[in-house]
Structure to design on (276 residues):
């Protein structure tokens, strides 16, 4: 049953250090966010690692009760592209990686998204995708009636004036599955996109990462380790003081939209090129 005092959300992710921090940020706001479930998809690393990593982070955050679902193993129409060169072989390198005790749910993530939305009232549930949009796009294609149930989609992906991080124009999440992104962008529901233009302003500077580590908790130590690891790639690539923290911008927006973010209305277009 949905809690009317909180905003019900489904987090769709591919952990990834920044996805991991995003989950922890959501877990730290139990009075504001009602996490109905966490769905995982192949992206930063293959599916068997993203679903494992999501469960590790739930255990780390003290929420082993949350249901975690494994979804699509590959993009809708293209071979999977992963990003171990950024996130490491395990996806959350820098953290303690192990076999979590909490179970993986047997239901497919796409079916969970469909069933949860179909059981809800119209305009009631917020989707928070921080990964290639394969799960969400597949769900919308499989059962178009779920669109009316979505309050809004708050996603990390894309790039506008900022260049891409895979090609000169393409951001990773959209690049991995542009067909799914096109479905989501054209689904007719309110869409809040946190692109690279935003996330490249949120840097994991050494001072900020050190301040997190200084908290001295197990969560803080793991976050410090993950951010130290993932920052190295962008620091070397861009020559900046710290790496961008992409995915937590979504939950930060849900928690502090009026205070921290300036939004503009714009048309969003996904260009799909056959030569990929």
């Amino acid at each position: 049953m949905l809690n009317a005092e909180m905003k019900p959300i489904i987090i769709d992710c591919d952990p990834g250090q920044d996805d991991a921090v995003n989950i922890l940020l959501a877990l730290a706001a139990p009075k504001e966010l009602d996490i109905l479930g966490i769905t995982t998809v192949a992206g930063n690393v293959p599916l068997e690692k993203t679903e494992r990593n999501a469960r590790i982070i739930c255990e780390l955050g003290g929420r082993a009760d949350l249901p975690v679902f494994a979804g699509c193993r590959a993009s809708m129409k293209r071979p999977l592209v992963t990003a171990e060169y950024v996130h490491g072989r395990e996806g959350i390198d820098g953290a303690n990686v192990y076999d979590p005790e909490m179970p993986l749910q047997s239901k497919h993530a796409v079916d969970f998204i469909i069933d949860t939305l179909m059981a809800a009232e119209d305009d009631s549930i917020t989707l928070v995708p921080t990964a290639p949009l394969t799960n969400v796009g597949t769900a919308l294609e499989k059962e178009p009636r779920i669109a009316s149930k979505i309050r809004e989609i708050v996603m990390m992906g894309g790039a506008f004036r900022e260049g891409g991080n895979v090609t000169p124009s393409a951001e990773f999440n959209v690049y991995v599955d542009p067909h799914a992104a096109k479905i989501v962008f054209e689904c007719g529901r309110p869409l809040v996109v946190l692109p690279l233009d935003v996330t490249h302003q949120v840097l994991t500077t050494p001072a900020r990462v050190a301040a997190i580590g200084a908290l001295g908790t197990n969560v803080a130590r793991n976050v410090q380790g993950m951010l130290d690891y993932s920052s190295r790639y962008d620091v070397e690539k861009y020559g900046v003081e710290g790496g961008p923290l992409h995915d937590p911008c979504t939950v930060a927006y849900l928690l502090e939209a009026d205070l921290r973010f300036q939004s503009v209305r714009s048309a969003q277009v996904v260009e799909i090129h056959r030569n990929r």
